Structure formats: structure tokens, C-alpha cells
Amino acid sequence: MYWVFIFFILVIVYVVITIYRDKAEKESHDWHTEDYHVEEQVISKMQELACCHTTFYDSTDPIRIEKAYKEACERGGREGFFPVLLVLEDSFMDNILDTFGIKDGKNGINMDKVQMCRQELMHSTENAKDWLDIRLRELQKGFKKEHPDFYKIDVLGEHVENGIGNTSFSGIINYQTERTYPLLLAEVPVKQPWQILAWFPNGGGSNRPQAEHLVSVAKYWYEKYGAVPAVICDGILEFTVPQPVSEEESLPLAEEHYAFCTDIVDENLGTINALADVLRKSTVWLFWTD
Q: Is the pLDDT of residue 184 over 80?
């Protein structure tokens, strides 16, 4: 009887592990292949949260989306809105709701509370330049524990000129299918484009700036460089700028980008100087966090 009991327990454990493994594989397969289909409930909830006119696009040609975004920018100037592309995923919407102090939207979204939080973020008095400078000094201080010159040699790096600029959106594309993820093109009724990040503050967590920092930095970069939030999804944020920055501006700006989001250097380009080289050739700024 003892061995029968043990066998029975092992069978149950095997079945449970198999179920969770198959579920995880299916979710990964759905999100990273053409088989991914966003649920109607996710679309409707995001449309409710957007509280503005939206257009839904299923997986499609990225060129089509870039064209639709540019057309919306032109119309927005006449009609009084700024467009943004929102990649549809549960965790993205949940993170925004959590920022607004709404734990879930199963019973509907308290839009009065959402709009109040949006207004508070739009009128935040956070000083973005001070926050970025403090963040950079904290990072530099941490690196000194490794080696006095670690930041200068390993993080800042040497001047380079072999990078490739970003001139189109990356966050909307599933690179396994070369098509876009399902997304919404939202026409956000704000007076200034940086206020888009008060409307959809996808911040917080250990590797992401808090909502008030997102908004204040967006305002600062808009006023200084004309940067406009264009793509938002879970862990990814992209800005458009009218033209690449100059040689003189590129390194200080790259340090600000690093302070804002270290992953763009640590997990991709390797050094801040490499990022500065990319910024000198880019009209799209990309940020992501793991």
C-alpha cells in the first residue's frame, strides 16, 4: 500500500507539472507567433481606460501602422489630440490600473478616479533634470564600489561612430512573424504631447521610473528636444523626435537616457558612448526594461 500511495502522489505531481508547462508554452507561443489573438475583453477594457477615440489593429504590416500613426499626427494638429500606439497585453493594462490605485477592472473601471489621477500627474512639479542627475550620481557611486574607473571605462566607454540609428518603431513588432502585435491607436485629448504619459503611465517596479518621473522627464525632453511619446507597452516606451541630436548634445543626452533606463545600455548597446552614437542618427528613442 505504501508504494501505491507514493506512485499515486507522483502521478498527481507529474500531471500538475505537465498542465502548467503546457499552459506556459501555449502563452509563450501565442504571444510570439502569428497564433496570438488578443481577447475581446482586453480590447474593450483598454478602450474604456483610454477614454478617447481608438482604432484597433490586429497583427498587420508595420508599415501600415507607421503610416496610420503619421496620418493621426497630422489630423491631431487640426482636431486637438495627440496619437499614441498601445500594444495590447493584460500586464500592460494592469500596471496602469495599479498606478491609478485600481487593483483590477473586473467590475468596471472607476474612470472618475482615473481622470483625477491623470490630472494630478499632469500638474506634477517634479524636476526632471534634478531627478536624472541624482539617478546618474547614484549609479556612478555604485560603480565606484567595483572599481574607481569602472564607470568611465566600462559604462561610459570610448567614442564610437559605427552604430545604426532608429528611424522606425520597434516595440510594436513581433520579430518572429515580422508583423505587429495587436494594438490600439489612441487619439489622446491632451494639450501637450508629454501628457500622454500621464494618460497611460506605465511606470513603477524595480527597473522602471515611477509615474511622476515618467511624466516630468517626458515634459523636459519635449521642451528641450521635441520628444513625443509614441509607443507604450509592457516594458517598452518609444519617443519620436523631429531630428537626431547634435554631436555636442548626444553624450549628455545618452547619460540622461541611461539614468532613465539602464537596460538600453546594459542589455543592448554596451556603453553610453555607443548609445550617444545611435542618438546622433535616430528620430526614434527606444527604452525597455526586462
A: yes
So what's the pLDDT on residue 114?
94
User: CB neighbours of 237 closer than 8 A, spacing ≥ 6?
Assistant: 171, 202, 214, 229, 231, 261, 286, 287, 288
Residue that has been written with the C-alpha cell 526594461 in this structure: 289
Q: How far is Cα 222 from Cα 207, in angstroms, rounded to an integer?
A: 23
Q: Nearest CA to 208 among 283, 100, 99, 118? A: 99
Amino acid at 11: V
By the 8 A CB rule, do 187 and 81 touch? yes
Residue 164 has pLDDT above 70, yes or no: yes
DSSP label of 268? I
Q: What would you report as the CA-atom Rg of the chain, rounded to the nearest whole angstrom?
A: 22
- More confident of the two residues 118 and 13: 118
Q: How far is it, in rounded angstroms, from Cα 218 to Cα 256?
A: 12
The closest of 102, 121, 89 to 215, measured between CA atoms, is: 121
Question: Going edge to edge, which strands form the sheet with 236-240?
Answer: 53-57, 183-188, 82-87, 228-233, 236-240, 284-288
What is the pLDDT at residue 290?
60
Q: What is the pTM of this model?
A: 0.84
Check if the beta carbon of residue 122 is closer than 8 Å to that of residue 198: yes
- Across 119-153, b (16+ Cβ under 10 Å) vs e yields eebbebebebeebbeebbeeebeebeeeeeeebee
Backbone angles phi, psi at 39, to 5 degrees: -75, 145
Cα separation, 231 vs 184, whole angstroms: 10
- 229 close to 193: Cβ distance less than 8 angstroms: yes
